[in-house]
Predict the structure.
Amino acid sequence: MDKVRLDFEPPSALITLNRPQVRNALSPDLIADFHTALDQVQQRDDVAAVIVTGEGTAFCGGADLRILRDMTAQSAEQARRHSEGLMNFFHRVYEFPKPVIAAVNGPAIAGGCGLASVCDIVLAAEDAVFGYTESKIGFVPALVAVFLVRICGEKKARELLLTGRLFSAEEAQEIGLVNDLVAKEFLLQKARELAEEISRNSPTSVKFTKELMSDLQSLGLKEGLRVALQLNTLIRTTEDFKEGVSAFLEKRRPKWKGR
């Protein structure tokens, strides 16, 4: 696992994209290493949240164009398998049971912007730059578009995808892609503080909340309320709920069991 670096810093784990010579471009090997890192994180009960950042001056410059160029000579089935791998990667990050915090330390372009888009919380250095630039090389940001529309709505998504323009961290915050702007030297510190704050909450509640947020995006009002009712009922039967209520009434810190 050399394309990403994994550091355990309970209550967080830090995944660093580690291809600085190519602006941490996404490749099949990097994605495979990222999955391996997530596998290890998922097994750790002492990790409440994952932080993702980039080595060097960039967060992620998108897909490795040299690999995409080579794929132009491959079959449609091979292209589909590569696209499916990228889709599964974005989907796994989006629905990972532990919150994922992006610490965007530099440019997040194309697929790198897509990676930020699927994280639960995005912190950005004040000088970070974003862009869904796929149209400039004749590509379509199809997978990323699914998530971008959820973030900023159709009209803004159309503008960003059709122009392929770069935009500032400040604008990224205005459209809802970025949660907070942080001075670069304090970026990881702020991400760790968020992880610490999350770690004080029930892991069962956090996991179910993530699942609920994913489900609600595709449901109408009635269906959404039906799903919410089921979850509201289920959470009352968990040990974490019973412990949380008891701890609050007894004015003590809860001892979560994660179930």
